[in-house]
Design brief:
Elements: E1 2-3, E2 10-11, H1 18-26, H2 29-35, H3 39-49, H4 58-73, H5 77-106, H6 109-123, H7 127-130, H8 132-137, H9 142-154, H10 156-171, H11 179-205, H12 210-220
Antiparallel strand pairs: 1-2
Helix pairs in contact: 1-6, 3-5, 4-5, 9-11, 10-11
Length: 225
């Protein structure tokens, strides 16, 4: 994940759900200090940061048991593949619910509010399109939402291809290349992705009127270094 030099906005980052983003924030020292997390709170979050602890959740433990039984009873590779595919979706949902439950039970209302502000700072303006509550609080018109979606979607294909290229270079380049050459291309890709995302942010911001812009800044709260 690549941050901008003078902003909390995380550019050139793969899209993730809100809960995953919030745990990323909680894992950073600056956010821990800003929220004044106690050692007991940090210990509670270890159940999320350490994957081996996921078995402590009854719903996930039951899912694993039943999933194992389904795989054992499967009659063909095609059936097993279907079970795994559907199982991955179910597991992701249960994991997200478990992680969100830990957040809600561990943080105080004030800490939750501050974390939500930092999430908006990190995610950027397209969080408006993902959270109907934010859009409602901003009192966006249908025309504004439509324009924002058009601006956001216009660069989606370009960004997708750039991100795929970046990931492919990280995992397994198509041909044998010098390390310095690879690093140079990845650095260039990151810069291009950042600039495209900044343009997209500006496009969405331009849709807001002065009062909506003020409200958005209030929602984001005070910046954290």
């Amino acid at each position: 994940v690549f941050g901008d030099d003078n902003s909390a906005r995380r550019y050139a980052a793969l899209d993730r759900d809100a809960v995953t983003c919030k745990y990323f924030l909680l894992s950073t020292k600056q956010v821990q200090d800003s929220l004044k997390l106690t050692q007991q709170q940090l210990k509670s979050f270890e159940s999320v940061w350490l994957s081996s602890s996921f078995t402590n959740d009854p719903a996930i433990a039951e899912y694993r048991r039943s999933h194992k039984q389904l795989l054992a009873a499967a009659q063909s590779d095609e059936e097993r593949a279907k079970i795994r595919r559907e199982g991955n979706e179910k597991y992701s949902l249960l994991l997200n619910q478990y992680n969100e439950k830990i957040l809600q039970s561990t943080l105080s209302p004030a800490q939750t509010n501050k974390l939500n502000e930092l999430f908006l700072q990190m995610k950027g303006l397209h969080a408006i399109l993902e959270d109907t509550n934010v859009a409602r609080e901003l009192n966006l018109s249908k025309e504004q939402i439509s324009r924002m979606n058009d601006d956001f979607n216009s660069d989606c294909q370009t960004l997708s291809l750039l991100r795929q290229r970046f990931l492919r270079l990280q995992i397994q380049p198509m041909r044998k290349r010098d390390r310095a050459d690879l690093d140079s291309e990845m650095k260039s890709l990151v810069q291009v992705i950042k600039e495209v995302e900044k343009d997209r942010d500006d496009g969405i911001l331009a849709v807001l009127n002065e009062e909506q812009h003020r409200l958005w800044n209030n929602f984001c709260g005070a910046p954290v270094s």
